[in-house]
Structure formats: structure tokens, C-alpha cells
TrEMBL record, chain A:
Gene Ontology molecular function, alphabetical: DNA binding
Keyword DNA-binding part of the UniProt annotation: yes
Alphabetically ordered keywords of this record: DNA-binding
This protein's name: Transcriptional regulator
The species this protein was found in: Chryseomicrobium excrementi
Keyword DNA-binding: yes
Location of the HTH cro/C1-type domain: 5-59
SUPFAM superfamilies reported in the protein's UniProt record: lambda repressor-like DNA-binding domains
InterPro entries named among the record's database cross-references: Cro/C1-type_HTH, Lambda_DNA-bd_dom_sf
Domain of life: Bacteria
UniProtKB/TrEMBL annotation, chain B:
High-level lineage: Bacteria, Bacillati, Bacillota, Bacilli, Bacillales
Record key words, sorted: Membrane, Transmembrane, Transmembrane helix
Protein name according to UniProt: Uncharacterized protein
Source organism (scientific name): Chryseomicrobium excrementi
TM annotation in the entry: 12-32, 52-82, 94-118, 124-148
Length: 68, 151
């Protein structure tokens, strides 16, 4: 799923590892989410959105074509 | 899915099964009573199976037994001393894929084993051992690669 995590993370000048430790997941998880290889659970999406001070819908770009 | 998220629990589970498999192979390799249950060498027309039978006769199960135990030690080391003791949801999803592929290999192996046993009943023990080795070593190696990828 498309998202703004990489953009926002780079704006904050933090590494994937630092973001990962903020939301209690591995660096690989953040990398996979940024590269749209993994869709996070609703709770991880919530934690990420909360960290960036956004809503889930603002952080993750919901498109009908992505619906499974 | 929470039952697979603890690397240490997974390692203990794998170690217990590996001790059974590895120990069994080390125990029966070269054992006279076990060898007496095998068909004579070169008793089928398939080169591969005769090679496998010769391998068993020559004590090859010892190598497999030690290999299984060696991989178990590596899995234990990576699980106990790795950076994360608990897998997150992304890592769990990767592990689930490893388990699914191994499960598929197991499911495919059973009908192949049955076909082979029915076509060459004398070879039932070498066939069974071969599929056990393939299934367990495949799972161990893929799990080890998974742990290495996490580092």
C-alpha cells in the first residue's frame, strides 16, 4: 500500500532503525512498509500515524485498486 | 499466530524434533539390525535410489545426523543471541511463508512416498528415510536462512 512514511521519516531526519524502535518493530518491517512490500496491522498503522501526528488515512493512501 | 513469534520457543521446538531425528539417524547408522531391514545393494533399476541405498549402507546417516544437529546448534545460537528475541508482525509473516512452503513440501512428499513404496515395496525403508531427511533438512535450512536474513 502506498504511504508517506519514507517522505515523513526523511523530513524528520531519522533512520529506519530509529523509527522502528519508536514503534517497536524491526528495521526490516519499516523498510518493507516503505517499499510497499508489507501491509502493517491496524495497530502498527495506528502507532506510525500517531508518531507522525497524522491520521491513518493521511499516512496511508487508500485506493480501491489496492483492495484484496 | 502469536505462538510462532518467540524465537527462543521456536528454537526449543526445532531442537527437540532435531534431537529425535538426528539422534535416530546416529543410532541406526551402521547398526546391524537396521542394515538387515534394508534391501540388497543395487536391487532396483534406478540409479538414484541405488546411490541412496549405498549411501545408507556406507554409514551416510551419520553425516545426516550430525548435519541436523549442527544446523540445530546454529539455529539455537542465532535465536538465543540474536538482537530480537521476539518476532514482529513482518518477521512473523515471513516465517509463516517458510512454514507454508515446508508444509507444501511435506504434503507433496507423502503421495510421492506412497507411489514409490507401492512400486518398490522392498525399498520402503530407504524411501521413507529419504523423504524424512528431505522434509526436515529443508525446513531446518529455510529456518536458518530466515534467521540469517533477520540479522
Amino acid at each position: 500500500m502506498k504511504n508517506s512514511i519514507k517522505l515523513l521519516r526523511e523530513e524528520k531526519r531519522i533512520t529506519q532503525k530509529q523509527l522502528a524502535s519508536q514503534v517497536n518493530v524491526s528495521r526490516q518491517a519499516i523498510n518493507a512498509i516503505e517499499n510497499e512490500k508489507f501491509e502493517p496491522s491496524i495497530w502498527l498503522a495506528y502507532d506510525l500515524a500517531k508518531y507522525f501526528g497524522l491520521s491513518i488515512e493521511d499516512l496511508f493512501h487508500f485506493e480501491e485498486s489496492d483492495r484484496k | 499466530m502469536t505462538f510462532i513469534t518467540n524465537k527462543v520457543t521456536n528454537a526449543v521446538f526445532i531442537a527437540l524434533l532435531s534431537l529425535v531425528y538426528g539422534g535416530l539417524f546416529l543410532l541406526i547408522s551402521g547398526h546391524m539390525e537396521f542394515l538387515s531391514t534394508l534391501p540388497p545393494k543395487a536391487s532396483v533399476n534406478y540409479g538414484f535410489w541405488n546411490t541412496w541405498l549405498t549411501f545408507i549402507y556406507d554409514g551416510g546417516l551419520t553425516i545426516i545426523g550430525y548435519t541436523i544437529l549442527g544446523i540445530t546448534v546454529a539455529i539455537g545460537g542465532l535465536s538465543f543471541f540474536g538482537s530480537y528475541k521476539k518476532l514482529d508482525e513482518y518477521q512473523s509473516s515471513l516465517l509463516l511463508k517458510v512454514i507454508m512452503v515446508s508444509g507444501l513440501i511435506t504434503l507433496v512428499s507423502f503421495p510421492l512416498l506412497v507411489i514409490n513404496v507401492l512400486s518398490e515395496p522392498l525399498f520402503a525403508i530407504p524411501f521413507t528415510l529419504f523423504f524424512v531427511v528431505v522434509i526436515w533438512l529443508f525446513f531446518q535450512i529455510t529456518y536458518l536462512l530466515f534467521l540469517i536474513k533477520l540479522r
